From TrEMBL:
It comes from Paratrimastix pyriformis. This is Ferritin. InterPro entries: Ferritin-like, Ferritin-like_diiron, Ferritin-like_SF, Ferritin_DPS_dom, Ferritin_prok. Residues 4-149 form the Ferritin-like diiron domain. Pfam families: Ferritin.
Length: 166
């Protein structure tokens, strides 16, 4: 079946995803505050920019739902951790979150294909492709944290590296 309006199931799926994008914004903005508190200004800058990107993703998806003549109905927002054991642990959470979001998009894509909702398949393509870059960035950062496990004083160099990533 292919219709102009989103199916009810797809509207619920995509609305949930809008919440996930706002939750990612909230999470990364809070991580930026934590980095700032630790004087890791490069990481804070990177995380602030990531948070801003997540806001754009949320809007892009919400606008798509609206363009299909469907309302956006957000489920309540997920919470974020208050603090992290270490900056490395914080970025591990970022990598986990990006992996989680990637799996969600793959599920949405499968559902859109099963519904033969080709417009949604096309709209989701951008998000699926973007997740490849997000996961690659997270892996790059975790590689650099792994490199300095025996040399914690190198955190300042890693901070500079991450700050230069965006
Ligand atoms: Fe996103």
């Amino acid at each position: 079946m292919s219709t102009i309006e989103l199916s009810e199931a797809m509207r619920i799926r995509l609305s949930h995803q809008v919440m996930e994008e706002f939750a990612s914004e909230h999470l990364y903005d809070h991580m930026a505050d934590e980095a700032e508190h630790l004087n890791l200004h490069g990481m804070a800058k990177f995380l602030r920019a990531e948070a801003a990107d997540e806001h754009v993703h949320a809007r892009k998806l919400a606008d798509y739902i609206l363009s299909r003549g469907s309302p956006v109905r957000l489920p309540s927002m997920k919470g974020v951790p208050q603090q992290w054991e270490s900056p490395e642990k914080m970025f591990m959470d970022l990598a986990d979150n990006e992996r989680h979001v990637t799996e969600l998009y793959h599920g949405h894509m499968e559902a859109a294909m099963a519904e033969k909702d080709y417009a949604t398949v096309a709209a989701l393509q951008w998000f699926v492709t973007n997740q490849v870059a997000e996961n690659q960035k997270a892996a790059d950062i975790l590689y650099h944290f792994a490199q300095i496990r025996q040399a914690p004083f190198m955190i300042t160099a890693v901070d500079g590296y991450i700050g230069g990533m965006k």
